[in-house]
Amino acid sequence: MKKILDRITEEMKGAFTAAGYDATYGKVTLSNRPDLCEYQCNGAMAAAKDYKKKPIDIANGVVEHLKDSEIFEEVSAVMPGFINLKIGSGFLADYMNGMRTGEKLGMEPAEHPETVIVDYGGANVAKPLHVGHLRAAVIGEAIKRMGRFVGHKVIGDVHLGDWGLQMGLIIEELKERQPELCYFDEGYTGEYPEEPPFTISELEEIYPAASAKSKVDEAFKERAQEATFRLQSGYAPYRAIWNHIMSVSLKDLKKNYSNLNVEFDLWKGESDAQPYIPAMIDDLVEKGLAYESQGALVVDIAEETDTKELPPCIIRKSDGAALYATSDLATIVEREQDFHPDHYIYVVDKRQDLHFTQVFRVAKKAGIVAPERKMDFVGFGTMNGKDGKPFKTREGGVMRLENLIADISEAAYNRIMENRTISPEEARETAKIVGLAALKYGDLSNQATKDYVFDIERFTSFEGNTGPYILYTIARINSILKKYEAVCGTPKDPVILPPEAEPEKTLMLALSRFSEVMEAGFEELAPHKICAYIYELSNALNHFYHETKIIAEEDKEKQAGYIGLVTLTRSVLTTCIGLLGFEAPERM
Ligand code: ARG
Where is this motif: 'HIGH' region (predicted)? Predict the structure, then answer.
């Protein structure tokens, strides 16, 4: 099904052509005066200059050709030359039925399906997952799902931080605690045990302890750096410890992400990119891009059009160590080889903006990716507490993700119990679903780049622009359908009839924009647009519900039409929340 705006625009362009003007003036937009019209075209104003005529005369001429339009029920030219449009009821009902019966709610498959890599999550192995990682996971997951819905082949990669100093710190700490372990016996020639020498809870305690020690004990820090270097150079015993750290930590990470409804296709990390580094560096040198500067190897990335001075990208430090950027570049080499992506999307804290500018520019300069390759950095802001500072626990520590989820589920539970419509047992289960929705919607409804305040009271409220409000609307539809089915049985083919009243039409107009919103949402990598849309849609549904007798309607055909309409609304809402990465309970 063609997008409604495309259908309208086509019709308008036809009218401009028929009236003797260029079709390009027939651009239509949503009305900015919803009190006057639903859509509008301002093309007559632009055409006036080129054709040296009065805009209103042009508008009147164009309107003449829309008198018999099947799409519009009202077309008017108003001073100084606007064309105001109202969509015809019959056309709208047809459009609704097309969505109702069509695949993917009438959304057309992408014209040019692309292979897209979404790099998100970015957890650091062996360090606890904290709220800083929440946004990456939540936003990235939404973007991945949105891309898939639009019709692309999207691959989500967690890109673990699994190759850094934390590994050396853990190794050294372990050595101090258990020097008798075979990994630390330089003369050892046997096999390494399959069982890790630590559990996840031990590991979770080891890293912070080692990290704290390294801040006060310079010698310890140096030993940890040395251990990291040995690991990275392939020293077998340390590689064996690394494998243990990975297996223990990954199991825990997978559980955590799964609780968030976040699923990765690839569990790769910085370590996987290491084999690609030497050849890549040779190539950068050979191409004359990388050069020595104060012992380090760097690539200039500044461009003439830059408004501020951008430092060169450091590829190798003077001590020979590779850096974060080196790893990211080598990862691109690997991804090119494995997937030939058309589009790269990185969802990472916005403070890493410079890093990604450097990486993208080097990748293009060096021909690691083709010049036309799309490379996007979705830099997100910080989640703050009510004090406007980065979110902390009450004790002032870093809040762990699990605790945050537990807190918000508890708040959701209390809200659900206020309603007293379900048993405490059911409320417990429901609260998990509602809590996650509250958390994710609270995050996603803001433009990603902006910082936002984590406000548990507001996020869990059943009213206003919140996740629970959207879920509540879905639950309301479920309840309407249940009541209807109890009396009339399962609706066979509830054909939606042309709207008669304003609330009905408003709801249909909102529904009809579904495909457009999905497309624009992915195009702009903006999940908040989907949130804004489902909020508007929920408001329209609730307005319709309050103004319309659905269950008491005596005209059975009309009633079936209402059922078709609310069912379609539910499908659109559940599809959208699915893209945002959460679900709705049956009732709440
Ligand atoms: N591990 C990094 C961090 O915690 C994020 C990784 C983001 N992805 C990337 N390709 N650099 O800051």
Answer: 123-133
